[in-house]
């Protein structure tokens, strides 16, 4: 049985990758940080009680800023494969704690590589480094002749996060070249899922669209509506991580869908899932998203909400009923308007707090190398991703 060690196992990707590797028969070890409250919600379903016999899923306390514990865990676990997914992964937050991000996202990668070297496990252990499309920074002049970013496009990071990750990228490549290690970068473009952290834009949107449809929130506040991203599904992307470590030769790969979409269009797709049509309108300097119309059938199907049929019947039967609340509704008025925001309501507003000091305007990746060399093929398209996320958030909030 192969042994894998995953840093960042409590995160979005770590949880999907752990599932995938367990399915493939691996023994999976993960590093989690000690926190004052539970931070293992994404992997709780994988927990196996060691008191009930042999287990193939193990968690270790640790931190990428602590070499001593990294060396000790690698020595104990003797992994065949290490997936370095641990990171402070929020681009906007990286402007607030740049030194910490450099330490975790940059030097953290070095600590793992160096631990493997110190322990003389270079020939045994393969290393995957979670590199990112943020390395490109969205500089238009750096796209290839087809208009995409690929493995040969120059880098120009635009945030402390991107700058820290560029160190992770190069140190991984350097250890491969200097010491012959099987160490690879997956340059992954944005990937999302129902398990995505709540402060990334897609999840923020799907949670808000679900909450607004269920009458639990009034308005969604966003930053740059015109940023474009190449969004895929995390489930597809962890398969690529595994494939990257199964090749004969260690190489770096771009993982992307090859499509790019504006934040504002993602907003419209998410709200469309609950039957809401959003129209954009400028009011002075502000741009807002207004509820223009509702597809009632879609709304009721997606939310599982029902018209209050009892109230309707009783009201029809007994015009003079003195019973309270639901019965006071007039039968003709008992429509969608009683249950949802009204047509014309502002559901989306722009809040400059979410703007970044330097923005990455447009990302689009060319996955040709991964498709031809790894035979990687994603199962989800953007519509499938949005639906999966919306279903997840509706059932979470319902
Ligand atoms: P998440 O933010 O969901 O997960 C990050 C993980 O890293 C969490 O388990 C977190 O622990 C852990 N972590 C944070 N700081 C430390 C630390 N000091 N020591 C050890 N572990 C730490 O990210 P994703 O799952 O979305 O991304 C996985 C990796 O891929 C990250 O490196 C990210 O930068 C990179 N990436 C992500 C892309 C995406 O679109 N999702 C695209 C390209 C790259 P805790 O749960 O305790 O916070
Ligand atoms: P990104 O993801 O920065 O691409 O990094 P995020 O979802 O945070 O932002 C995408 C784009 O949306 C714009 N935006 C907003 N973003 C957030 N978070 N909140 C908002 O309210 C909002 N409004 C508009 C942003 O300005 C940006 O242009 C993600 C992370 O997973 C990284 O770890 C990873 O490396 C890259 O993707 C690839």
Automatic annotation (TrEMBL):
<dbReference type="InterPro" id="IPR006368">
    <property type="entry name" value="GDP_Man_deHydtase"/>
</dbReference>
<dbReference type="InterPro" id="IPR036291">
    <property type="entry name" value="NAD(P)-bd_dom_sf"/>
</dbReference>
<comment type="similarity">
    <text>Belongs to the NAD(P)-dependent epimerase/dehydratase family. GDP-mannose 4,6-dehydratase subfamily.</text>
</comment>
<keyword id="KW-0521">NADP</keyword>
<comment type="function">
    <text>Catalyzes the conversion of GDP-D-mannose to GDP-4-dehydro-6-deoxy-D-mannose.</text>
</comment>
<keyword id="KW-0456">Lyase</keyword>
<dbReference type="Pfam" id="PF16363">
    <property type="entry name" value="GDP_Man_Dehyd"/>
</dbReference>
<feature type="domain" description="NAD(P)-binding">
    <location>
        <begin position="5"/>
        <end position="296"/>
    </location>
</feature>
<dbReference type="InterPro" id="IPR016040">
    <property type="entry name" value="NAD(P)-bd_dom"/>
</dbReference>
<dbReference type="GO" id="GO:0008446">
    <property type="term" value="F:GDP-mannose 4,6-dehydratase activity"/>
</dbReference>
<protein>
    <recommendedName>
        <fullName>GDP-mannose 4,6-dehydratase</fullName>
        <ecNumber>4.2.1.47</ecNumber>
    </recommendedName>
</protein>
